TrEMBL record:
The gene is WDR5A. The keyword Oxidoreductase does not apply. Keywords: Methyltransferase, Repeat, Transferase, WD repeat. GO terms for molecular function: methyltransferase activity. WD repeats lie at residues 21-52, 65-106. It comes from Cucurbita argyrosperma subsp. sororia. This is COMPASS-like H3K4 histone methylase component WDR5A. SMART domains: WD40. It holds the Pfam family WD40. The lineage of its organism: Eukaryota, Viridiplantae, Streptophyta, Embryophyta, Tracheophyta. One of its GO terms (biological process) is methylation.
Amino acid sequence: MNCVIESNHLVLCSIFCYWTLTGYNRAISSVKFSADGRLLGSSSADKTLRTYACSNSILTPLQEFRGHEQGVSDLAFSSDSRLLVSASDDKTPRLWDVSSGSLIKTLNGHTNHVLCVVCCVLPSIPNPT
């Protein structure tokens, strides 16, 4: 996005479309970049997640993640971009392996839709001696 401030009041912006995500059967609910900017992830109401490699002006499809029973509302990459967490209307967050597209873990127990997820790095906790 290029923005220009004129007379300290007016901001003129132009936005360029670099990529268009296609091939979904329903609405895309979330799009996120990995921390290193090399990957783009998307979640959709069609029950899927997808990852893409971002390189220059080319967006290359990598994986399609299937397993949710209802629409996927959100996603988050781990800080090292090796894991992906998803939130879904099926009341489960799920943990995925980014490189293989395989499901690692389903976190059951929620009683309603899971709307959002976040990944964070926890500080190291030393073992008690």
